[in-house]
Amino acid sequence: MLLLNQHLKHNDTSDELIELIDSLMLSCKEIAIKLREGALAGVLGTSEGVNVQGETQKKLDIISNDILKAVLLDNPTVAGVASEEEDHPVPGNPDGKYLVTFDPLDGSSNIDVNVSVGTIFSILECPEGVSGGDDSAFMQSGRKQVAAGYVLYGPCAVLVMTTGQGVNMYTLSHGGDFILTEEAVKIPEQTQEFGINMSNQRFWEPEMQSYVNDLLQGEEGPLGKRYNMRWVASMVAEVHRILTRGGIFMYPWDKRDPAKPGKLRLMYEGNPMSFLIEQAGGLSTTCYDDIMDIQPEKIHQRVAVGLGSKAEVETMLKYHVKD
Ligand SMILES: O=P(O)(O)OC[C@H]1O[C@](O)(COP(=O)(O)O)[C@@H](O)[C@@H]1O
Ligand SMILES: [Mg+2]
Ligand SMILES: [Mg+2]
């Protein structure tokens, strides 16, 4: 039985990074307790608040954000944090080495119906001479991530993380420890499962429409196999399914709001999930470019996402050609 800290030490993770991951996991354990208590703790339902992206916040979006902020900003390794639920980055220790971005509660529309949600995080180094409270400190491509991962709060709580040496899974025990339960996760290259919100079909680009039409034709269509479909509406749960049994997940650009490149957020969802997927042998793309190659321009920037099993993503890419 290998505890998270022992496993990280074993993989030569620096003491500073272990200290930071410790704080992140302390926060996630607190969030897990709040989620488990649900209605008993009076934490379900919607708050009065709206975040900077115009989305109504669930009470638990705010609670989770406050927990992560308080714990991380108390950690001397943290120079600043940026969150989906904060208007601007929040500075930490001016001498701190790391920046942390997070989606405190992903899939929060699922909370009140008791379906899986998660916390997504990404760790970057803070550039020399820049405050961790400045947007500019965070304008680093996904390739610069030092570590990334998520905690899925499902029937059990699971941490899935990469520090750039493959992907590992750790399950939260009764005693409150994350214990290594799967090492060097690899996504099957070919599968027969896709995830996309079909209700947006009429808003997609013709390229995506034609790819999904072919998926739906199954063994009678040009792709020659029958596909199954899943849509949880929690990205954490979709990515966990793909890391566990393969598949492809898409939240593509659509014309509902043409000014936005997509619904999902680059810094809190796109980049950390892409790091995990690539480290597990999969691909992650906007349908035209690798997500982790994007040079961010705004902290709350959106991105179109298509990720998962290598062969399935490659097939999707064949339908999308650059002008
Ligand atoms: O409700 P839709 O349009 O299907 O969107 C679902 C997507 O939105 C998200 O819930 C966005 O996350 P938040 O709950 O953090 O806003 C993703 O997890 C999920 O993939
Ligand atoms: Mg989210
Ligand atoms: Mg969220």
Overall strand count: 17
> What's the end-to-end separation, in Å?
53 Å
Discrete helix count: 7
- What is the name of the CATH class of the largest domain? Alpha Beta
What number of structural domains do the residues give? Answer: 2
- Ranges with pLDDT <50 over ≥5 residues? none
Name given to the CATH architecture of the largest domain: 2-Layer Sandwich
DSSP strand content: 15-25%
Structural class: alpha+beta
Helix content: 25-40%
Provide the gyration radius in Å. 19 Å
In this entry the ligands are: 1,6-di-O-phosphono-beta-D-fructofuranose, magnesium ion
Query: CATH superfamily name of the largest domain?
Result: Fructose-1,6-Bisphosphatase, subunit A, domain 1
**Average pLDDT reading:** 96
Query: What is the CATH topology of the largest domain?
Result: Fructose-1,6-Bisphosphatase, Chain A, domain 1
Q: Enumerate the strands of the largest sheet in spatial order, edge to edge or round the barrel.
A: 4-3-5-6-7-8-9-10
- Secondary-structure element series: HHEEHEEEEEEEEEHEHEEHEEEH
Binding site for Mg(2+) 2: 103, 106, 269
Main location: cytoplasm
Protein name: Fructose-1,6-bisphosphatase class 1
Subunit structure: Homotetramer.
Report what the structure shows.
Strand 7 (147-153) and strand 8 form a beta hairpin. 28% of the residues lie in helices and 24% in strands. Helix 2 (15-37) runs antiparallel to helix 3. It is α+β, with helices and mostly antiparallel strands and 323 residues long. It is built from seven helices and 17 strands. The chain has helices at residues 4-10, 15-37, 59-73, 206-216, 235-245, 266-279, 310-318; strands at residues 46-50, 56-58, 78-83, 90-91, 98-106, 117-125, 147-153, 157-162, 167-172, 178-182, 193-195, 228-229, 248-251, 264-265, 283-285, 302-303, 305-308. The chain has two domains: 4-182, Fructose-1,6-Bisphosphatase, subunit A, domain 1 (Fructose-1,6-Bisphosphatase, Chain A, domain 1), CATH 3.30.540; 193-318, D-Maltodextrin-Binding Protein, domain 2, CATH 3.40.190. Bound molecules: 1,6-di-O-phosphono-beta-D-fructofuranose and magnesium ion (MG) (2 copies). One magnesium ion is lined by residues 103, 106, 235, 269.
